Amino acid sequence: MALLEVEHLTVTYGNVHAVRDVSLKLEPGEILGVVGESGSGKSTLGYAVTKLLRSPGQISAGRVLFEGQDLVPMAERELRKKRWKDIAVVMQSGMNALNPVATIRRQFEDAIMAHSPMSQTKMRERVAEMLQLVNIDARYADNYPHELSGGMKQRVAIALALVLDPKLIIFDEPTTALDVVVQRYIVQNLKMLRKRYNFSALFISHDLGTVLEIADRVAVMYGGKMVEVQAAGELLKNPRHPYTEALLKCFPDPRSEQIEVLGIPGTPPDLADLSPGCPFHPRCAMAMDRCRVETPEYISMGEAGVACHLAAREVEVGQNG
Amino acid sequence: MAEAILKLADVQKTYTRKANGQVQKVRAVRHVTFDVPRQHIVALVGESGSGKSTIAKLITGVERADAGAIVFNQKPFGEWRRNMREYRRHVQMVFQDPYAALNPLNTVRYTISRPLANYRALKGSASDREIERILETVHLTPVKEFVDKLPFELSGGQLQRVVTARALASNPQLIVADEPVSMLDVSIRAEILHLLDELRTKQGVSLLYITHDLISARMLADEIVVLYRGTVVEEGNAQEVARNPMHPYTQLLLQSIPNPWAPALEPNVDLSRLDRTSDDGGCVFRARCPHAMKVCETAVPTLKSGAAGQKVACFLHHAPETQEVAAP
Ligand SMILES: Nc1ncnc2c1ncn2[C@@H]1O[C@H](COP(=O)(O)OP(=O)(O)OP(=O)(O)O)[C@@H](O)[C@H]1O
Ligand SMILES: Nc1ncnc2c1ncn2[C@@H]1O[C@H](COP(=O)(O)OP(=O)(O)OP(=O)(O)O)[C@@H](O)[C@H]1O
Ligand SMILES: [Mg+2]
Ligand SMILES: [Mg+2]
Description:
The structure holds two protein chains of two kinds. Chain A is an alpha/beta fold. Chain A has one domain: Rossmann fold (3-Layer(aba) Sandwich). Chain A has helices at 42-50, 76-82, 104-115, 120-133, 150-162, 180-197, 208-214, 232-237, 242-249, 289-293, 309-320; strands at 4-13, 16-26, 31-35, 57-66, 69-70, 87-90, 168-172, 200-204, 217-222, 225-231, 299-301, 304-306. In chain B, helix 5 (108-120) runs parallel beside helix 8 (156-168) and helix 8 (156-168) packs parallel to helix 9 (186-203). The longest helix of chain B is centred in the middle third of the chain and has 18 residues, at 186-203. Chains A and B meet through helix 5, helix 6 and helix 7 of A and helix 9, helix 10 and helix 12 of B. The structure holds adenosine-5'-triphosphate (ATP) (2 copies) and magnesium ion (2 copies). One magnesium ion (MG) binds at residues 42-43, 92, 172 of chain A.
């Protein structure tokens, strides 16, 4: 059974439709990357899965099955038991999510005491062990967050998410605010931790380079929709959706002789607009008449999928030939 | 090479702060020397805490250097101090976070009209005409659609263009841009990088581009200056430095860029050394350096010309001199 199954999820903030009919599946131990430009609905998707949406955010349709159980109708009291213990979240700018007036140790102890209490001695050991996991000297346990650098705080936030051994972790831009060396370090560290603890993760970021490095599969969002899902290596070699292709071009191989500043011309779609048509068509170099009037269906092909009229044709040809 | 519009010579800055009841000294800028040639784009590259923003603050006069010289247009900063208005007119700043840089209650028109009135005494229709010209320069067109908007009605990229437009309003000769794109996603990033490049080519503005991203530095800049813990460790032609770095720290920066095209080729970054520091004399990078030698503990390497044309401060590339060995 899949650990997490999101079915036809729609999330609205008033008349803003931030996540539109999104479905995805996450197997135990799998890391699914979620990429897309600013405002495409990545954080909204992540928070909807834990039902931590900010007001006036609302799940207006769909199901979120965690180990087969739908979280959408579940009472807040029940959910609270699952959060952190089963599903942990590392928030966008997680390093600022640490409690500024509590020592690092206090923050670990509070989490442990709330969910699975243990003796003081055990707890001391556990805190030291968790800090060691993210390569932070245990003597920092009695420091306050502001006494640590940005990269260290972000690693503490990750260790905090891991402390109760959750099955699923949602990382929302865990590395975006950090410099490249620390980013690199955290990605390596996460890969190692996943091997050891076998958690699943949704890894949300607008940095496609980092996502391709850490994720098993990558989901590409555009205008609140999931437009493509593929295994990371495949996505890199054979992007199916023109948006994915355009996005890939923005991340040049750092070894190449010539590198140019490339972006995707045009502006992001208006999320209050519900008229039919592909959300990417105004910026798509390959747009056809049909794309302007008919919303492409998300075609699922097992582990992968795409929502594009042009790609759908190629998929059919591929299957028939 | 073009004459220097800005020269920094052995600039130093130490902050004192209180932590846990103790007074701590932070040597944010140790010994920094570099030039910005006129109409060039120079990238100042380094990790968080390396002193990039402090250098920007020293150049723009927000903070005062403890020692060393900052020379703008052949005139030392001390002389400009007597006429800061004139200095600010010529040297403008663009900040990292466009969302925080603008007053949420001011329209685009008002934001840009302030420097026009302050520095160039433009008012009324003359001001409006100039606002229109500047908004066209930063591609906020049709101008009519943007000029009366408030910040919340604009996207991140549009906001950063307003911030840039405000910096341009005084007709500056030098713009210091402190991480102008790191908050923005790739599309908007490309937009702003193109704009900065165009300002140099079409308006003749010189630019100090501050970033931790070696790739965008390579895309935009003519020269790259690499900073580590307040010290310039490598400097030279942007293509050379970004493609064939000589200093082990610059090499680490390059290796850290995610490269899904060649994951197998990349050596891992050594995890155990990340938080190590060495503040007790010797090379500042020593504690994290995979090639550290005995001499790196006792002597401080200075910037010297290396084989490929760039300058590098590292004993792997040149033997220490007696004066370096004697240094604290
Ligand atoms: N609390 C809220 N109230 C109203 N609208 C919101 C709220 N939070 C998000 N939105 C809107 O929902 C859309 C999706 O936002 P979301 O934060 O999910 O995007 P994102 O992909 O995470 O972007 P970023 O990369 O900038 O973090 C945006 O148009 C945003 O303006
Ligand atoms: N006002 C201040 N008082 C005390 N210490 C300071 C002050 N401003 C900066 N520092 C310290 O000086 C050092 C350099 O900081 P600076 O902001 O210049 O780095 P930076 O390279 O811009 O980093 P980032 O990439 O994180 O912006 C850091 O150790 C910082 O903590
Ligand atoms: Mg987000
Ligand atoms: Mg800074």
